[in-house]
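README, section 4: Worked example with a bound small molecule

Sections 1 through 3 covered apo chains. Here we extend the same pipeline to holo records, where the ligand is supplied as SMILES alongside the sequence. The molecule in this example is magnesium ion. Nothing else about the input changes; the structure line simply encodes the ligand pose together with the chain.
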Amino acid sequence: MIPSFGQGSACERTNGWWCTDWLRDHWGDTLQPALLQHVELSLIAVAVGFAIASALAIAGFRFRLVDAPVGALADFLYTIPSLALFQLLVPLTGLTETTVEIALVSYTLLVLYRNMVEGLRGVPADVLEAARGMGLTRVQTFVRVELPLAAPAVLAGLRIATVSTISIATVAAFVIPKGLGEPIFVALNQNLFKTEILAAGGLAVALALTADGVLVLAQRLLTPWSRLR
Amino acid sequence: MRSQAAELVFDEATKQYPGRPEPAVDRLSLTVPAGEICVLVGPSGGGKTTALKLVNRLIPLSSGDIRIDGTSILDLDLVTLRRGIGYVIQQVGLFPHMTVEENIATVPRLLGWSRQRIRERVLELLELVGLDPDHDRRRYPAQLSGGQQQRVGLARALAANPPLMLMDEPFGAIDPIVRARLQEEFLRLQRELGKTVVFVTHDIDEAIKLGDRIAILREGGRLAQYDTPARILAEPADEFVAQFVGADRALKALTLRTLGDLDLRPGTWLPGLPRVPVATTLRDALAVLVAEGHERLIVVDEAGEPLGTATRDDLLA
Ligand SMILES: Nc1ncnc2c1ncn2[C@@H]1O[C@H](COP(=O)(O)OP(=O)(O)OP(=O)(O)O)[C@@H](O)[C@H]1O
Ligand SMILES: [Mg+2]
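The generated complex, written as structure tokens:
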């Protein structure tokens, strides 16, 4: 049986790969809102993940005892497949945005935490000795030396976390009708409309590439010295 | 700008690292008069670095005391103590994320100097250590050669004009030619600044060249001899010191004086005699005589004008 694609254009009725008229008609009511929701979901996840990872990383850096358990937990969270994690969370937090964010944040933690701790630990011993010898306090050493020197590693982690969050966030549509996963989900469930799947998927890829580009630019601006070595 | 220099006193200073049978520095007592360079020299593991770091309390004393201008370092607040001491290390330890200017400005910034004052000080210091104030100021450490980095390290340590400098093998990782130049410049700088300096090296020649006094540490951080270079070379306190300064100590002693220190003979300016600048060390002058097979040389001033003559015996007297 040939599925019916409604009353749209010829392209739509034959389930074409790239129906420009459909894209034009549904940019406003489908694609654009999905894109904005996707940005929002990802942004919140990365921001919250960054905040939590920072706190944990500072603790893990200062107190080695903290590092092992936190690292293990982050490792563990990272290994749970995203669909399974959503399934596990739904009974607890329901079909809500919270469920999605908890899952997304969990995935950012490992990369961010590891990169932050490694960045902080990677500060050369001679640099630290010079700082101490010059009379920088612990806090001054942290703020003026350790943090900036950890920045390249932190930004590298942020890039990976952001790109993977944007990609994983498409799966959020299994829980809530939001993000670029939603149009894909709808098309898969209803009529396998190729143009819609392709457009939403393409937007997700473009979003990931754009975010990555922005972060690379930030890296160049914030740590101009890091490319000299 | 000449700062007041500080007198530094080690008083039975001892460091016993936990879990070690022997102390690393053993009841070290010596006084570095204000404005002098004291070179700590000795074999590897002799406790030189440890002794140096006791002063700015990067390593805590086990017993004994160290006093700067009469005040025990234990009575000073740690940050105040360290900001009053310039600290230079072999690995330099420049901050890779800061430009040369920002590196040098570190301590003045912490001290809350005005922008204007910091800028002026940075330019002055760059000039002082032989870097280009316009060009080098905005560069990052990774863009500098090892010798240039060490100059920046020195400028950074001098930034707040501390009366006391601690230097741990600052020229150790630098090739011999640049090293010799840095040593010369360091001496010129010191004539200008007149700081109290504790300088660690394991190179006896560097010690002789730079030190007003030399402290020779033997294994276990015990002081073998503390004296002027001339006296250490002329009268080593024991077999260990004699060995350490080397069998050629008589020759080394010749590096301590220049032709300018001799009473020159008025002479006939025979053509064919070697003409040697007055600032040449007696050792180098002797080398010229040996190389050219002469008994006598003509001493000339910077402009090349003859000042007098000296014989080989004059050099060795
Ligand atoms: N943190 C430490 N813990 C335990 N032992 C130490 C420590 N630092 C140095 N030592 C020991 O103390 C002794 C003196 O070391 P120190 O670094 O002061 O010697 P040094 O004269 O500076 O040697 P070098 O010429 O190799 O730099 C050595 O036996 C060294 O192994
Ligand atoms: Mg040492």
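What to look for in the output: The longest helix of chain A spans residues 20-62. Residues B 48-49 surround magnesium ion (ligand 2) (CB under 6 Å).

Section 5 describes how to batch many such records.
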